[in-house]
Design goal:
mainly beta; 4-stranded antiparallel beta sheet; disordered N terminus
């Protein structure tokens, strides 16, 4: 599945939960995501659940043990602004 920002990579089933990796692609306004400060974080929020992940070394956010459902993905950084993105995760994807 490809979305304009960020790119969502395949889901990997882990027992009854999922692993979601979000990759920040290079864009005209962010030619090198690897230059984002390490304080950049992302969150997946839905009713009753909030998952957070720090920016990884390969410009990724890794969310583990995510339940199926609809989430708001929000990336927060001090140097760039990111629009929130709706992410729908269904069991059995991957």
């Amino acid at each position: 599945m490809h979305l304009s920002l960020p790119l969502l990579l395949p889901f990997l089933p882990l027992a009854l939960s999922l692993h979601l990796r979000v990759v920040l692609p290079a864009t005209a306004s962010l030619p090198s995501p690897s230059h984002l400060p390490p304080s950049t974080t992302a969150s997946l929020t839905s009713q009753g659940h909030v998952y957070t992940a720090p920016l990884g070394v390969s410009s990724t956010f890794d969310f583990r043990n995510v339940s199926a459902g609809s989430y708001l993905l929000d990336v927060v950084g001090t140097t760039h602004g990111f629009a929130p993105l709706r992410v729908d995760i269904a069991e059995g994807e991957g």
